[in-house]
Design goal:
Elements (H helix, E strand, L loop, with lengths): L2 E6 L11 H12 L10 H9 L5 H13 L2 E3 H18 L3 H12 L3 E9 H11 L3 E9 L4 E7 L6 H13 L7 E7 L5 H6 L2 E5 L3 H10 L2 E3 L4
Parallel strand pairs: 1-3, 1-6, 3-4, 6-7, 7-8
Antiparallel strand pairs: 2-5, 4-5
Helix pairs in contact: 1-3, 1-4, 2-3, 4-6
Length: 225
Amino acid sequence: MTQALAIYDMDRTVTRTGTYTPFLLHAAKALAPWRLAFAPVVPFVMAAYAAKLIDRRRLKEINQRLLIGGRIPRRKLAPVTEDFADLILKTNIHPGALRQIAEDKAAGRRLILATASYRFYVEPIARRLGFDDVIATGSVAGLDDIIHARIDGENNYGPAKLRLIEAWLKAEQIDRAAVHIRFYSDHASDAPVLEWADEPFAVNPSAGLKRLAAQRGWRVVDWGF
């Protein structure tokens, strides 16, 4: 029997809005409110990214260093990530996403959340939503279990997301030819995975993805209600 996987992007696919900057602000407020004084610097870092002076990886590392510090013990961060997950579930989930997750689970599909957001705060969200696995951007963590403001491996975005999904399949000893894969995303940056999936879904699509979905014949769905 063919195994079935349902892979979901998170930000603006399952959630209504992005979660990265809101998480950093939430963590700063909880852990070191004085760091909120650095919040006005964040738009300048984003402007540097828009101007191609830094890449997305460096953007994330700088903003994390500004708002929650270059090093933070996982035990100290854990309660903050749990609180943030509760907040996301209460305020920031598309109703249609909850219905689709329930439908895929009932159909026996293995649920994977594949996102560019950081694993350390994605895992509590994924657990609350009933996902089986998470493929997310990793953080460098030392033997002392200190999370550093440095990305471990690739930032799980664009073509890197497909590479990391394929690496996960290999680690799980899953033969791509023996599985049927659904993939849900809101953004054209996920085009490599959408092209690769057996069933691609453009969810609450950005303008770029809406055009691409029309060209490719991908199904377009709205989870906003």
